[in-house]
Structure formats: structure tokens, C-alpha cells
Amino acid sequence: MVKALPFEEPVIQLREKIQELKEITSNADVDLTKEIDHLEGRLKQLEREVYENMSPWDRVQVARHPERPTTLDYINELFDDFLQLHGDRNFGDDEAIVGGIASFQSQPITIIGHQRGKDTKENIRRNFGMPHPEGYRKALRLMKQAEKFGRPIICFIDTKGAYPGKAAEERGQSEAIARNLVEMSGITVPIISVVIGEGGSGGALALGVANHIHMLENSTYSVISPEGAASILWKDASLAKEAAEAMRITAPDLKEMGIIDEIIPEIQGGAHRDLKKQAEYMATTLKRSLEELCTMSKEAIVDQRYEKFRAIGEYKE
């Protein structure tokens, strides 16, 4: 059973009530068909009210859902013949970032993405999806390889942020992120980034300097977590809900501001409800992006990426 989030409780309770009545109808000599039909109509109405009017904090909770699909989940659904590549050729292999070569609808692709775990053991192995410097250097190595062989790059963003520990700083965390930002800006093959969960701070941006940036409907993309922002602004992390609303970190807000290109719709209740269907939605968007970008020259690809980021934050007096 999929774990329910707090804002979903009224929907879950009504579903359970309907299931209870169906069991009574099938096991006892009682006809509750009218009552069940009435409640199922009410359930559809309630689902619309709950899922179509989600607050920014509700979307944060969905983006953090422990069963939300990860990069490897989407790779398995979207791509064929995935060959995972390891290591940064400098220090080691960071399992918080996965990457490799695959084909998307018969087109060779390089895939790179943050990878978090779905249980405690895997989260420890993946460092909760927070990369060390070697993770970003592995990502850059694969991007340069893609550029050499003319393969488009698809990045999946899903991290709370880069790992802030002592060892990461000693090995050059800030330099590694900054290097990715500089190098990605000049790569001559198409880059498409998709925010599939949390897109946190520079740890997310290090895979986000792309020609097209897309977001799943219930993902978030921000310079800091709502809890972190609340701690800084109001000295109280419990005000994270208010911070989430003030920061405008959801896909609709970011689309309105021109930071992202397209919102990928999610299954009602979140991508974790139906991975296969969610992958179909994503495939449609990726195909459209690739068709547009792959017709452009190398110079046009770099220029388009530059102009995209140059336009973010523009204002008129």
C-alpha cells in the first residue's frame, strides 16, 4: 500500500469506507449499492478538491515521498540498453549520482541523474542523494564524453543539495559545482534537465544548466529548503510551510517566472501512484525537446542556452 500524506487523509478515509461497504455487500446478504455509488461520486469530487488545490507545502511533501520514482526507476522505464558508467577518474565513484549511455526511441543518449534510496540501507549507500565532489566530476566526465560523440544529454534532478560535510569540502565541493556550471554553459550538444523530485540549491543547479528545463508537476526547485529558509528568515524551522509559499518553489510558479520550460503533468496523487504512466508523460516531453534541439547547430545550441539563462531575472523599470 502506498503511504498516504497528511493532506490526503480525507481521501484515504473515504476510500477505506467504500472498500468496507463493498466487503459487507459481498459477504453479507445486504445490498449497499446505492450507498457505495453515492460515496464513489463523493470520492471523485473530494479527489478533485484535494489534488487540484494543493498548496506549495503539499507539493513539497509529494516531492519528498519515500516511494517517489528515482532516476534509475525512470531509466528502466524510458530507455533501452542502459550501460552505467562509474568513477570520476580522480578520486572514486559517488553513488549519489548515476550516469551512463542508453538509447531513447532508437536515439543514443547520455543520461545523468541524482539517485537517492528508498530505504535506510540504500539511502546510506547513496548518501541520501547528496553528491560529493566526485559525483559532479563524474557527471562532467560523462557530459564531455557525450559532447565528443555527439550524444544529447538528459539530466534528472532530485537532491536536497550537495553534501556539505568536511570530506566533501576538503575535496573541493564548491569548485566541482562551479566547474560544472561553467562547462555545461559551453557544451555543444543539447542538454535537457528534468526536476523529478527535490531540486535543491547548487547541488541541483550543477545538473541544471540546460537548453530545456522541465519539472514534474509536484516537484520543487529552489536555492534552499523551506526549513532552511524559515530558520534563516524567522529563526524557526517550524515555519517551513509559510516559507514554501513565500519562496515560489513549485512548478507553476517557476513556469510563470520563465525559469523552467514545461510542466510535466503527474498522475493524480503523485508520480509514485503509477510509474509506467508517469514515464509515458515524461517520454512525450523528452521526445518533443529532442526533436526541437537536435535540429540546431552547435553554435545555436550554445547561444540558445546562454540566452535562456541571460533572460532569467530580467526586469523593466
Automatic annotation (TrEMBL):
It comes from the Bacteria. Residues 38-292 form the CoA carboxyltransferase C-terminal domain. The keyword Plastid does not apply. Pathway: Lipid metabolism; malonyl-CoA biosynthesis; malonyl-CoA from acetyl-CoA: step 1/1. Belongs to the AccA family. Acetyl-CoA carboxylase is a heterohexamer composed of biotin carboxyl carrier protein (AccB), biotin carboxylase (AccC) and two subunits each of ACCase subunit alpha (AccA) and ACCase subunit beta (AccD). This is Acetyl-coenzyme A carboxylase carboxyl transferase subunit alpha.
